Amino acid sequence: MKFFHAISRFSVAVGSLSGLATGIMMVVILVDVIGRAFFAAPLPLATEISVMLLIVKVFLGMAGAQATDSNFQVTVLTDQLSTRLRHFQRLLTLLIALLGISLITWFAAKYAISSTQKGEMSFGVHPWPIWPERIILAAGLVLLVVQLAVDLIGTMIWGEAKMKAGLPDHSGAI
């Protein structure tokens, strides 16, 4: 079980980069707006940097959100289920999510490899490499797949409550 908790803690730690990316994105946009408004000099590459930070924010935060059960959930119907059916529903949804996200991850990883081999760049005033963004996206999805697998296996063996013990509770259930 310690191994499973270590993976979940790692997911949460990587997810913290998501918050850091948000802060940096705010600073980049603020500097760009001030430069445009007061000095008629926008920050070069502000849009490209913001897009990369947005990818970091979204894709590196997904596994941490899964680990802490922070994803938004509407539990009106599932709350009406018996404990046994709720457990089965949890396992089924984790399995479906694992299969679907694994497929998306496979294609994202192939695309990241292809993009990296080609040295894919954006077109604009300042060329900007896109391949690192593809790698970040694929890495975030890989972390999510690992976290979903940990949640599925752990829930099968120990149940949901024991799997989430010791992790921050940010449940978005209503």
From TrEMBL:
- What broad class describes the main subcellular location of this protein? membrane
* Every Tripartite ATP-independent periplasmic transporters DctQ component domain range: 25-154
Gene Ontology cellular component?
Answer: plasma membrane
Transmembrane segments in this chain: where? 12-31, 37-60, 91-113, 135-158
Any one Gene Ontology MF annotation carried by this entry is: transmembrane transporter activity
As for membrane topology, the entry says: Multi-pass membrane protein
Q: Which InterPro entries match?
A: DctQ (IPR055348), TRAP_DctQ (IPR007387)
The protein's location, in the record's own words, is: Cell inner membrane
Q: Write out the entry's keywords from A to Z.
A: Cell inner membrane, Cell membrane, Membrane, Transmembrane, Transmembrane helix, Transport
Query: Is Nucleotide-binding there in the keyword field?
Result: no
Q: Which family does it belong to?
A: Belongs to the TRAP transporter small permease family.
List the PANTHER family.
Answer: 2,3-DIKETO-L-GULONATE TRAP TRANSPORTER SMALL PERMEASE PROTEIN YIAM
Sum up the protein's function in the record's words.
Part of the tripartite ATP-independent periplasmic (TRAP) transport system.
How would you summarize the oligomeric state and partners of this protein?
Answer: The complex comprises the extracytoplasmic solute receptor protein and the two transmembrane proteins.
- What this protein is called in its record is TRAP transporter small permease protein
> What is the species listed in this Swiss-Prot or TrEMBL entry?
Seohaeicola zhoushanensis
